[in-house]
Specification:
It is found in: Cytoplasm. The chain is 28% helix and 21% strand. The chain is α/β, with parallel strands linked by helices. The relative contact order is 0.19.
Length: 203
Amino acid sequence: MSAPLGVILAGGRATRMGGGDKGLRMVGGRRLIDHVIDRLGPQCGAMAINANGDPARLSEFGLPVVADSLADHPGPLAGVLAGLDWAAGQGATAIVTAAADTPFFPKDLGARLMASAGPSGLCLAASPDETGRVQRHPTFGLWPVALRDDLRAALTAGLRKIVIWTDGHGAGQAVFDSTPFDPFFNVNTPEDIAAAEALMGAA
């Protein structure tokens, strides 16, 4: 299987950050999305950014910007669908997604997701929390283009929770180590920016 295309999910409204584009917030002297592009780029083929609103604000990254095709911000699954529709136009068979506010995700994310994919080709990333319980990170996944119309139908019918849909298709799970910290740490609040700054040296 050839390398999947990459899609950075940046379509959220960042309400806990006071609105705006979380991916453009500075951490470690660079924007969050710069860190994400650097990590995802070597793991995939072409990349695109899923974001809503005026795409010109992201033009400097030189990547296609694909907006949700469904109205009213139905959540990350709509971003996945937008990425799948874009990938279909590129003749690709799958995409790997990463959230724009997560600067430390694994550099072998794509390969591990592909190795652990279920029969449908779906796979989600996961990692143990502080209690040792494995938690899924559904914005980090491998998604086959062949399921995009099924996903579109589910979203149109009102489905919003990612794992309900992925469980229904027998998604695999790739579990990543959380030592010395969870690589899927994401920046949701101003306090998280300070935490991310502190983690930069250990990443």
